Input
Amino acid sequence: MPMQTVQAASTFFAVSLEILEAGKILPCDIWLRHDGTDPILYRAKDLAFEPEHVRRLAESGVESVLISFEDARAWTDYLGQRLRHEARDESKPLSGRIEMLLRTSRATMNDIYRDPKAPVVKEQVSHLADSITKIMQQPDALVTSIRMMEHDYYTYTHSLHVAFYGVSLAHAAGLHDTSYISSIGRGCLMHDIGKVGLSHALLNKRGRLTKEEFDQIKTHPMRGARMLDEAHWGDPIARDIVLCHHEDLNGQGYPHGRHDDLISVACRIASISDAFDAMTTDRSYARAMSANDALTILRTRRVDAYDQSLIKVFITMLLDPSEKR
Ligand SMILES: [Fe+2]
Ligand SMILES: [Fe+2]
Output
């Protein structure tokens, strides 16, 4: 292993090992850090990253490698190409493409939620949203995806699932503008980013939250919107979803208690997708419920909170995917 080291350890971002494709040429230098020391160059750009490297790193317990901020562009181009290829390679069966896309997306989302201020986040999210938008146009893509979704709740996997549901619902509702749908995807992927920074104990508390605890949780939409503003996202649709995904049509949501027409279609789509994925996933305070039970709650118990015309489309989309489009 070359022993080149650098001083400015903070100018690196972490990338999950599983995103690097074994047997392919590296798009940029990759570095490792041992026990808080300065990063050491592990393998240089333009060399092949062999299965043997993956095996050795995995055996040493390495889960992620480091990439220099200077290589951010090369890295996001590589990731974008890879995601596009995975979503669009029609020589592979749909289930195989979705499996690859889910695996790469999950690892990328984990990186994003661990370090949402990394310089590559916005582009990574855009590449993910574009690929999800593309693949979710395929008939049966959503039901195939649902079969492969993990049922343990992590904020980053939840956010990924919400994007799959949200983009599918946008397609099924007859929206045709793919850049608008991609923005919905970006908003869904980032909708809970404001939870980063809230304590793990609070987010995973079993049992009822006190009023003070719930008040803290309720800060996450504003925190998330602020994070996007600080990173100069410039995507008003995605920002709107981050800020308003807990608003209810009856005005009883948060943070602003907005009513009906003040809640955009993009937010209505995101809030249905968010609620459905949360209810059908195991959380610290509740077991996953069946899709039917979750849909019944959206349709009856919280009838005036959600856009019922979109709920109808959502139900049709889930129950009878062949009639989606
Ligand atoms: Fe949320
Ligand atoms: Fe959520």
